[in-house]
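Reply to dn_fold:

You asked what the input looked like. This is it:
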Amino acid sequence: MDPTSASLLLIVATDAALRLRLEWLERAGYKVRPACSLKDVEQACHAQEFDIVLVADAVEPKMKKAIGLTVRHFFPDAPILQMGRIRPDIEGDCFVTGDSREDLLQSVSKILRRDEIRPAAL
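and this is what came back:
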């Protein structure tokens, strides 16, 4: 998939995390919609479709589960990438990656290209 056509939902807990990851992703050519709450996630899901959903590690586990249920309701097949994890908190087609710029961009690219990777195995 061409990055300029990929739409990402970025879910973070803090403004600092948002600014940093938003910059990384936008510089790589992705169209990013940020969300900082469950309400933001619901509004984003109503407004548009996403090729991938990114969830930062600082988001609380209970919130991650609620986010996962919401995303799955709107987009049952959308991959979810959890940053800074060694195993996913959200069930389904989930992946995990390190929290560095390189790890994040490489993982997003692999998922969007539909490389042969197993969920939770980046």
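Residues 3-113 form a domain with the Rossmann fold fold (CATH 3.40.50.2300).
Hope that clears it up.
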